Please model this.
Amino acid sequence: MLEDLLNKDLWQDFLRRKVENEFISPREKAFWEEYIDSETYRPICKGIYEGRYCFSVPSKHLIAKNSSGKKRTVYTFSDVEMVILKYLSFLLYRYDYLFSNNLYSFRKGIGVKDAVSFLSRTRDTGRMYGYKLDVSSFFNSISPSLLLPSLKDCIDEDLFVLLATLLEDDRVCYHGEIIKEAKGAMPGTPISNFLANFYLKDLDHYFWKRKVIYLRYADDILLFAHSEEEIKEYSYYLKEYLHSKKLSVNPDKELWISPGDSFDFLGFSFSGKTVDVSSHSLEKVKGKISRKARALRRWYLAKGLAPDAALKAMNRIFNTKFYGKDSADMSWQYWYFPLITTDRRLHIIDTYMQQYQRFIVTGRHYKMNYAYCPYDRLRACGYKPLVTAYYEFREKQKE
Model:
């Protein structure tokens, strides 16, 4: 497989797929075109193929998880090496046949939308018992000593040697010093997704063979059963299996679902046949709105600007998040609009957005805000309601 690191046609196919999936900005596209046309990858890839290239010591980073104060550990190699690893992760799709169809994370042509669609059309779940869990620090907790033996039996030998070398090297660079620590599946690196999929593939196969309604996306697992006794048996098997893999369940994200209960999964809320934005996603975006509004009010006051400058900035930022194609996070128009079946939480967000845009102008939350900052003023500054955009999207889908 490593000989394909030097295959220019495959590099170009890699870029085509990125462009087709719209996960790439024009600037990034231009970078990849130049990188591939000039074959900048060739020296390192040739060294890897010939077994003489040694990857650098990866750097360790602590990344904040939203505003919770918690941090996650990720690792990165040098910029040029990360580019090579992105392409390698693309080549790893050829092993997609190893996984069963109840795995929805980091698959070729399979993703969150497929999981949500499956749950939407599987009506029995509303009358079943369910269990949802999240694996604590999944990527960081993966054990190379348990992963590598089974990996060796399933992939090309030269590829296995490369992955084993990266996983077994316990050196990392942190604050300019070389330290030693277990890196798990090296979260933050492009190949970690494949490794995480592979680590629990036998668990996925177990439920697939038994025709259990079971879905996994990386560390998020959801399953259903027809009786309370059956769901407890499944949950016991799950926990025992995870324990055998040196993994544990996050108790704060463990959920038991009774028939008729609503539940959240992968950023969506399910209640009978209704699919909505999840409560977590709702609270997350409300937090972003309030923080950005406060920051922009401080900004325009400090600069001596008119409030409308801050309103326009607020709408540029969130219009990109909600409707843009080049934002770092996929836009809500791309992510939620095709799948949700109600505007309930979109309406809540619209109301919250209007409230905080008026706060930008007055610095207060009170009834006079409507007089100081009427709806027409918000619209003139670029505000576009999610509910309006959602129904416009649905009308276009009918055409």
In short: The chain has a mean pLDDT of 93. The chain has 18 helices and eleven strands. The two ends are 44 Å apart (CA to CA). The longest helix spans residues 279-303.
